[in-house]
Amino acid sequence: MKPPNESTTDSAAGDDARGRVSQAHDGSGLSRRRFLQAVGLGATAASIPEEGLLGKTVAPVRTGEDSWGPNAVPVTLNVNGESLSLKVEPRVTLLDALRNHMQLDTQEAVDLTGPKRVCDRSSCGACTVMIDGKTVYACSVLAVEAQGSEITTIEGFGDVSSLHPVQDEFVQCDGSQCGFCTPGFVVSSIALLRDNPSPSGEEIDHALAGNICRCGTQVRVKEAVQKAAHRLREGR
Ligand code: FES
Ligand code: FES
Known about the structure:
Blueprint lengths: L9 H16 L6 H16 L25 E7 L2 E7 L5 H13 L21 E4 L2 E4 L12 E3 L12 H8 L9 H14 L5 H7 L10 H16 L3
Helix pairs in contact: 1-2, 4-7
Bound molecules: FE2/S2 (inorganic) cluster (2 copies).
One FE2/S2 (inorganic) cluster (FES) binds next to loops.
């Protein structure tokens, strides 16, 4: 199996898969599950540009027969200032690695379920995190690809005892109902205010256009961002 950053075409992936099927029919012992894993990885590999989804070369995970999966490989992620080691299949997204693998794999008390999985296809913004200071949808980045970057989740901006002003204003302004969209909105709002400390209403709408609230809290969210901007300008 070729590593994801090597040039791979759909047809090459298909030929590889077909070769494996015929091996299975020949009685070579390739299981159906293993075949499906191989096909899944082939499709993923074919869709990733050589420079990776984040626009940089994907770091090699390890050397050896299973360097690029489909089995789990060691991955080190720098999350909220901590270096965390886990083992995930190369197809696992950053979102799933954060939410589902951290405690299990690292055996540490890390709880990173703030980024939410809602659409799982880059449509809603509920999974928004920062990578090297830029907002990204964690459901659309592979965990292996996020190695070597600074990842910041909602948990990295404040906690219950010490809320970030944006988090606090979401509470004060009642900018949340079911709360599924809230972590993503907060991360996007913090990113906006870092770049633009005095955004107009239109600029707030534009910056948060990639986040969707199905409960209809947008008016309160906007109010929270405006009040947080005011506080941050005053250093409160
Ligand atoms: S869950 Fe990632 S954009 Fe919706
Ligand atoms: S508060 Fe429910 S989706 Fe936004």
